[in-house]
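Lecture notes, part 5. Sequence design as translation. It can be helpful to think of inverse folding as translation between two languages: the language of shapes and the language of residues. The source text, in structure tokens, appears below.
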């Protein structure tokens, strides 16, 4: 009988042999690796980029979105119209609840709202400086907003990373885009100071928002975007106003509450080197030439100015001026409202010195006062129904109150409620007027209770209930649209949507402040 080894034992012996061989190989490979590491040069440490979540949180914490409602006006067709706007800003002074933004964001706004984390605060303008497009608005409360930290914009260099924040198109609050600084001394026609150019995406609605560095500090304020020949933006070319210019303007506000007015506002100015270039003349080519007057007004008894056409302005004080941009910036940066300024000019080959006093810029806004109205909602209503059918067939379809006018800064205006919109067209020898769209009140909610509305008395009733309880009223409004105004057909006048509007009923006599909701 042969001695045989079971197959299972052979398999175990084979595994042990393989393991022994592999262990020897690993020891040898480890020795080789250790030897190579000891003999190789020291590799530089890889720097892991800092987590930017803290920076982003810092940016978001101070940013706000701004909504505006322009003044109500009545056009030729007796329509109530206004413009809605949007922009951005950031909190600078938490103690005073001061938000910085661009002046053009809030220009001619009847009502301003600041939005942050689903909370809305009314705001009012307390300071504007048109020269650098700067505005300070004051909120009723700002507990949920943090102060922004400001950098020194004079130290900003091309190539550094930046973040632009804003509310693009008024529908995307707290949108963040990343880019770099492309240039720190860019000049454009819209403003007389040097701007920071960035390729971070900036769109309409970003105006007034901060341009932040990698530490979360504001280096500039988003101001404008470059448009291509087709009129579209976001081409990687955006402009921001250096934050140091806004610091200077804010300090002026704390001192005088007003920047100086532009003494050359009524003059047409041209750089002398552009006029005299290539011409034979003994007149200096350096300075700013007065070439005319705004709206073609010339010096006469009705237009008072110390300057005359063809005056060549050469100095402001002791400083030479070469361009109108330099002239304007010098007056803004080195003088205050009320200062006497010496201006040297050449008039018909004679050197003259003129002294002017800089007036304060008028920051009052004629659109911030409410217009009187009756009732509690600041709107005018009518009933159409069957009685109008013989004149306009489509009016027979609407049996609830239609809004025909909105009072400026009244409760309905603040709630962004619109009135009916008309259009007119010339037909044969007479002009016909058509209803293009209509807004009708169909119901209201008070403390969750729904009240259907069928007549004008019902509107008065729900308004009085809400006013007596000092609580908001939610109006349910249907929008109607006439799809083809050239044909007066009921089938073409259709209901297109339903909206819900929060209104705070109050009489005109209680509108003491435009900052209340």
């Amino acid at each position: 009988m042969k001695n045989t080894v079971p197959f299972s034992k052979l398999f175990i012996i084979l595994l042990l042999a393989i393991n022994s061989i592999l262990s020897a190989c690993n020891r040898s490979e480890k020795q080789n690796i250790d030897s190579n590491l000891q003999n190789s040069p020291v590799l530089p440490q890889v720097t892991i980029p800092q987590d930017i979540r803290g920076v982003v949180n810092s940016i978001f914490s101070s940013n706000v979105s701004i909504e505006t409602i322009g003044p109500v006006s009545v056009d030729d067709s007796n329509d109530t119209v206004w413009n809605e706007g949007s922009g951005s800003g950031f909190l600078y002074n938490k103690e005073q609840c001061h938000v910085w933004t661009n002046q053009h964001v809030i220009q001619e706004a009847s009502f301003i709202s600041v939005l942050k984390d689903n909370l809305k605060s009314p705001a009012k303008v307390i300071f504007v400086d048109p020269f650098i497009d700067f505005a300070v608005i004051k909120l009723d409360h700002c507990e949920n907003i943090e102060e922004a930290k400001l950098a020194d914009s004079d130290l900003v260099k091309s190539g550094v990373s930046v973040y632009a924040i804003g509310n693009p198109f008024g529908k995307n609050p707290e949108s963040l885009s990343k880019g770099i600084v492309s240039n720190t001394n860019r000049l454009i026609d819209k403003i007389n100071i040097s701007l920071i150019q960035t390729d971070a995406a900036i769109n309409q609605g970003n105006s007034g928002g901060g341009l932040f560095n990698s530490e979360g500090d504001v280096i500039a304020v988003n101001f404008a975007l470059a448009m291509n020949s087709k009129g579209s933006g976001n081409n990687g070319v955006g402009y921001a106003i250096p934050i140091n210019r806004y610091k200077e303007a804010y300090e002026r506000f704390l001192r005088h509450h007003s920047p100086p007015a532009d003494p050359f506002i009524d003059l047409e100015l041209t750089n002398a080197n552009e006029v005299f270039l290539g011409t034979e003349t003994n007149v200096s080519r350096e300075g700013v030439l007065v070439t005319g007057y705004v709206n073609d007004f010339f010096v006469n008894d009705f237009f008072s100015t110390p300057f005359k056409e063809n005056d060549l302005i050469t100095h402001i004080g002791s400083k030479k001026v070469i361009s109108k941009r330099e002239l304007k910036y010098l007056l803004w940066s080195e003088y205050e409202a009320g200062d006497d300024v010496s201006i040297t000019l050449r008039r018909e080959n004679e050197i003259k010195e003129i002294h002017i006093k800089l007036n304060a810029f008028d920051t009052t806004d004629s659109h911030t006062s409410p217009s009187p109205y009756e009732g509690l909602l600041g709107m005018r209503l009518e009933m159409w129904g069957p009685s109008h059918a013989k004149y306009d067939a489509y009016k027979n379809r609407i049996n609830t109150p239609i809004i025909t006018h909105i009072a400026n800064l009244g409760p309905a205006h603040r709630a962004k409620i619109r009135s009916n919109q008309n259009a007119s067209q010339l037909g044969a020898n007479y002009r016909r007027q058509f209803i293009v769209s209509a807004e009708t009140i169909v119901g209201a909610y008070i403390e969750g209770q729904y009240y259907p509305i069928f007549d004008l008395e019902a509107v008065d009733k729900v308004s009085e209930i809400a006013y007596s309880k000092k609580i908001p009223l939610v109006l349910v409004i249907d929008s109607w649209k006439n799809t083809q105004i050239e044909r007066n057909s009921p089938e073409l006048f259709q209901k297109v949507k339903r909206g819900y509007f929060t209104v705070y009923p109050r009489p005109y006599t209680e509108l003491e402040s435009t900052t209340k909701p």
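The translated text above is only one of many valid answers, since several sequences can fold into similar shapes. The longest strand covers residues 430-446.
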